[in-house]
DNA sequence: GCTATATATATGTTTCTACATATACTTGTC
DNA sequence: GACAAGTATATGTAGAAACATATATATAGC
């Protein structure tokens, strides 16, 4: 459902092929809040065309395979604008990592702390990548003169805020585990900073 | 995949029926980080039994329908512990709401602000519910004497941190939209605090 | 000449998830 | 007596998502 509206959104700004949508829009511009593989993009385009939200034209190319270029219809625009202006119910919060934490007492404290630390590294890497994108985005569009650039920036800020919150929580949780280890007198087993 | 491990985790602590897992575990204890409907729980139990991670016994009851009570096997425990101790790749960050923000320039500023504000209300409601659960959890288990209770608390903290981050971002974004409205001199159209 | 990469679209298959519906027994309420 | 609610399990179906594979043309590098 969501991919439908993302694709309509990209096409609202101009005609695009499935290849464009996959490589330029989904993978490059929207990857910090939505993902989709190639098969899903093409099948969604088929479906949107069947629903008369899009039309398509073959563009013959020389030196490259031919393209099927999609254009949004009036009905598609109406459908998109309705969806954009509607406040949808929050999806359930889902985080498989928290299953690991919830049952973390099955593990030794060392093993649990290790899982948390590795997750922290992954989150930090993702945050750094987002920061780079935000910086280059700011370079490209100056002081966000136009609305689309500002909205783009806001989505990057949201993703960065989520990563930062996750990292802060990981740090707090690791502190809690460490203080527990100290209390129970088993700190020699854990967190040996004097080693390696 | 994740539900498999959640169910193994619940059964690691004692035998349970599908009904127990759905009502007591999934809906009550784990709903802030995972959800599943009844059909999925029962089919997952079937699958885990086929894979020899669980065994089941019919318990005859009088006055109530009979129960099928599941028990984790040694293989199931090993499978669970392996998964718990493994650092898994972060799933892609997905947020359908950010699709709305990304294409928000399709909308009027009023309409966009309205969507943000409604989302804020929903997030705040969810945060309040989480806070209540955290409070009653603290009442029940005292100062988290046991590890499982501490882990439970940590998952609640993670969910609350995510909600708080989302709310803070919404507030910042609404401020930005308001300042833009003021700059462009159209503040009379927007955010009329003197009305109604 | 071979291989990799970029451009471009399509189909097959499986798993997860959601929603609906069916069955069946008991207790409590109107 | 009828009806709802709680206890308990099972199946049907459809959509979303992930992953794999197939096809075809052109260019660039080895």
Please describe what this structure looks like.
The structure is a homodimer of 196-residue chains. The first copy, chain A, is mainly alpha-helical and 196 residues long. Chain A is 64% helix and 7% strand. Chain A has two domains: 2-85, Arc Repressor Mutant, subunit A (Orthogonal Bundle); 96-183. The first copy, chain A, has a three-stranded antiparallel β-sheet. In chain A, a hairpin with a 7-residue loop joins strand 2 and strand 3 (67-72). The longest helix of chain A has 37 residues, at 147-183. Chain A is elongated, with a radius of gyration of 23 Å. The model of chain A is unreliable at 186-196 (pLDDT under 50). Chains A and B meet through helix 1, helix 4, helix 5, helix 6 and helix 7 of A and helix 1, helix 4, helix 5, helix 6 and helix 7 of B. The structure holds a DNA duplex (30 and 30 nucleotides).
Q: How does the SSE layout of this entry go?
A:
The structure is a homodimer of 196-residue chains.
Chain A: H1 2-12, E1 16-17, H2 18-29, H3 38-50, E2 54-59, E3 67-72, H4 74-85, H5 96-102, H6 109-141, H7 147-183
Antiparallel strand pairs in A: 1-3, 2-3
Helix pairs in contact in A: 1-4, 2-3, 6-7
The first copy, chain A, binds a DNA duplex (30 and 30 nucleotides) through helix 2 and helix 3.
């Amino acid at each position: 459902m969501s991919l439908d509206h993302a694709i309509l959104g990209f096409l609202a700004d101009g005609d695009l092929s499935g290849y464009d949508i996959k490589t330029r829009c989904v993978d490059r511009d929207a990857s910090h809040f939505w993902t989709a593989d190639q098969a899903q993009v093409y099948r969604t385009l088929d479906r949107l065309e069947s629903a008369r939200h899009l039309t398509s034209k073959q563009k013959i190319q020389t030196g490259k395979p031919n393209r099927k270029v999609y254009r949004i219809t009036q009905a598609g625009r109406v459908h998109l604008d309705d969806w954009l202006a509607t406040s949808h119910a929050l999806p359930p919060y889902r985080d498989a990592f928290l299953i690991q934490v919830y049952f973390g007492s099955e593990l030794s404290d060392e093993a649990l702390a290790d899982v948390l630390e590795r997750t922290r590294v992954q989150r930090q890497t993702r945050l750094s990548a987002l920061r780079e994108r935000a910086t280059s985005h700011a370079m490209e569009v100056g002081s966000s003169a136009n609305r689309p650039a500002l909205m783009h920036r806001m989505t990057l800020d949201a993703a960065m805020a989520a990563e930062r919150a996750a990292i802060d929580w990981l740090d707090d949780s690791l502190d809690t585990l460490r203080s527990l280890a100290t209390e129970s007198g088993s700190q020699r087993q854990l967190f040996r900073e004097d080693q390696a």
